Amino acid sequence: MxxxxxxxxxxxxxxxLITLAKRSVWIGTADIKDLYVLQGSCEKPFVGILSDxxxxxxxxxxxxAKEPGPNFRADFDRYPRLASSLERAxxxxxxxxxxxxxxxxxxxxxxxxxGAGMGxxxxxxxxxxxxxxxxxxxxxxAATEEFDKVWRGSECRKCQRKQYCPDPIYASHK
Length: 174
What we know:
Layout: E1 2-6, H1 9-19, E2 24-29, E3 36-39, E4 42-45, H2 46-55, E5 59-64, H3 70-77, H4 80-85, E6 87-90, E7 98-101, E8 105-109, E9 130-134, H5 137-151
Parallel strand pairs: 2-5, 5-6
Antiparallel strand pairs: 1-9, 2-7, 3-4, 7-8, 8-9
C-alpha cells in the first residue's frame, strides 16, 4: 500500500495513525512547534498525545533540528512524563520528515510537526504539503535506516557542524 498524503490529510491520516500505535512511534522533523489536535471534542497539544502513548508503554522517539519556542515548551512542561520518558535527540542537520509507526508503516514527506504543516490551522492558513504513507517494505526499511543512523549518532563524526550542535547525540562526537 502506498498512499499520497496532501494538505489536510496529514492531520486526518498521519496524526490519527500515530494515536493508534501499538509498540513504537519514531518522529523525525526539522521543526516542531505547539501543534494542537482534536481529541474527541477537545483541543489538545500534540505533546499530550505523545505523553499518552508513553503512558501506554509505547516507545516514542523524536529527532528535531532546533529547540522549539516558548509555547511548545509550556505545553511540554504540562506533561511531566515527557521529561523522564520521551526519547529525544537534537540534530541541527535534520531536515527529513519521517514518521515510523510500529516498524510497519511510515510517512515520508514535507510536513514539519507544526500547526501549518500538520495541525489544526484552517485550510487558508496551512502549508501546501505532500508525502507518502506506506507499508512497502523497501521504503519502510530505507526510512527506518535513515532515521536510525541519525539516532545512533553515526553521522556525528563527519557532520562538520559540531560548533552549532547544542546537544550532541554522543558526547564523544563533540
